[in-house]
Specification:
Strand order of the largest sheet of chain A: 2-3-1-4-5-6-9-10-11
Helix content of chain B: 25-40%
Oligomer: heterodimer
CATH architecture of the largest domain in chain A: 3-Layer(aba) Sandwich
Helix content of chain A: 25-40%
CATH superfamily of the largest domain in chain A: Mur-like, catalytic domain
Largest sheet of chain A: 9 strands, mixed
Radius of gyration of chain B: 17 Å
Strand content of chain A: 15-25%
CATH topology of the largest domain in chain A: UDP-N-acetylmuramoyl-L-alanine:D-glutamate ligase
CATH class of chain B: Alpha Beta
Number of strands of chain B: 11
Distance between the termini of chain B: 43 Å
Number of helices of chain A: 14
CATH architecture of chain B: 3-Layer(aba) Sandwich
CATH topology of chain B: Rossmann fold
Number of helices of chain B: 6
Number of domains of chain A: 2
Chain lengths: 406, 261
Amino acid sequence: MRARLATTVGGAAATVSRLAGRDGSVIGGIIGLRIEPDLLSLLAAGRQVILVTGTNGKTTTTRLITAALEATGQRIASNVFGANMEAGLTSALSRAPDAPLAVLETDEKYIPAMIKATAPKIVVLLNLSRDQMDRAAEIWMLARRWHEALAAAPDTLVVANADDPLVAWAASSAAKVTWVAAGQRWREDSWCCPHCGAHLLRHGDDWNCHECAYMRPPVRWTLQDDKVIDPTGQVLPLRLTLPGRANASNAVVALAVAEAFGVAPSTALINMREVTSVAGRYTQVERRGAELRLLLAKNPAGWLEALDVMAPAPTPVLLAVNAQGPDGRDTSWLWDVDYRRLRGRTVLVGGERRMDLAVRLEADDVAFQLVDSIDQAIDLAHSPRLEVLANYTAFQQYRAVIGRAE
Amino acid sequence: MANSPSSPRSPSSPSPTSPGEGWRPLRLVWVYPDLLSTYGDRGNVLVLERRARLRGMPVDVVEVNSDQRVPADGDIYLMGGGEDLPQILAARRLSADGGLHEAVRRGAVLFAVCAGYQVVGTEFGGADGEPMPGLGLLDISSGRGERRGVGEILADVDPALGVPRLTGFENHQGVTRLGPGARPLSRVVAGVGNGDGTEGAYAGRVLGTYLHGPALVRNPGLADLLLTWAVGQQLPPIPAQAEELALRLREERLAAVTAPQ
């Protein structure tokens, strides 16, 4: 085993890191795994690995956990560019061969395999909601796979959002769970009991089933507005730079992870507050005399959160939708978002599938103008500020136009 | 089956709602959005509501969750898509409830999509493909196919219905066989549909399709067929500018699928 580590893995890992470059390319990981199929396991061995998954907030939470754990003084490997399948995780670990900690965003479908490969110290489960249904697994099915994978990993601590019933059920098979009341804004996928299917009773963030008595587990950490209540009952203001309720949720989860490494919340928050943008999300840029803020969201739960984050009227809004492979080719999800709050403000609609969005907005009586480019949107907005919300490839196209300012 | 395709409105059917003043509102009943609503199913409710209101018809939308009774006095019932487990639960609860059966017996319109389409049949495939009893409101039976049909679908509608070509998105692994009591809704031009070259099925005022989610958005003709069935008479036209965006979207999607790659 040691010889194998020294030779095969050393060589494979070197190849990976040589090919990986600084932009998070996964080519190195792909080739490394060809040379040594167990490369990820071998690279993970001896490290404390944290896997972060969920439908939304993976990238940001991974970044926040990494910031929180900087207080440990240890080096941390992380797939900061969001390559979150086996090759991406492998690349991230080989780029940081000496890092004793690893915080790895992981695609929700790959969690069972990645738990097996990395024997993680912690698995973080954020939320589960409908997402790119043409290529992603159905979410009750995903919850079942998480449930089985965690039952088979008795040494792993799970940090899970107790306010999402499907996530809570998935985590309920784990030997050790830190429950976090991180809130749940989007509820359209969790009206029914994940255990028996009956309609759930919900009061605020609490929930329980009146047929099988399944209920929200008792929580250790609580998000309350923009404050966190820690396990001792102490109330701390979060004061994040990142906007919105969703990021406050992500931050409370990160604090629960930091606790497992002996990092106090007041210490963890110092570095977490320094996080301003994550892989271009929430970036503010100046263009044609207007201040633009870029918001990326890929599914209805994400759009709901992003609409919450936006500056209120009269700040104009540009919405852009594509339906390429990475976006999901099916635009049906646009009908799951409630746009009525945009009534009465300037709304611009762009992206390759702008007609789908146009018909959707018309049904909600939201007036809008179609645009062919981000510059046309800026000109039509006639405003010092413009909020831009786009799904994945639409976001990348706009970023390519305005430059990849972090 | 509850109705034959050409049967006139039965005498016991709900009193017709109609354009103009003095009529009671059109009642749209969305059945079990808590179980059967996976991806944009609300779109069908919104499109029917909008197209009725544009013609001056008042509309009541009733959302019935799975812990509530299904009212029998609705005019149009809508059922959406769902994963295996919610689909099985929905079928079980709707059978026990009986409200939807009574509504269909009284001549109400039922529009069922994807998992909902399978549920209204006599049988559908369960979580491991095993046969599960459906509601028996449409003479179809469904099982699980070899592969998942995912992508844009085009289909030409039964000429008897007077509805233009369907455009939509399908995402299912179902295979559906039609019995003698149901007619194919359409013939597949591109896509999978029922699996035998047909797509969807209808009998009387019960109509189902694999076009998933907001199927009526790109098919205003199908929406108007349902409304016509519900009111029992020809509908007045909609102002042209109120149709323009939907028709542009429809043309764009039709062209995108028929264009050579």
